[in-house]
Amino acid sequence: MAKKYSMPLSGGGIMRYGDEYASKFMMNPGTVVLIVLVIIFVIVILNMVGVRLFGIV
Length: 57
Hints:
The chain is 46% helix and 0% strand. By secondary structure, the chain is mostly helical. It has a domain at 27-57. The mean pLDDT is 78.
């Protein structure tokens, strides 16, 4: 008859990386959205007036 093996109660070999690493550089979601919107705005403005300012075709 086959023996039954049970997983250890300590997580079964699954590593939890979130517990091991804490970043010193933290940003909240609102800041990330604001940065993305600013980048999009700059790209749109450069596409509209960039040719006149820089002469790039």
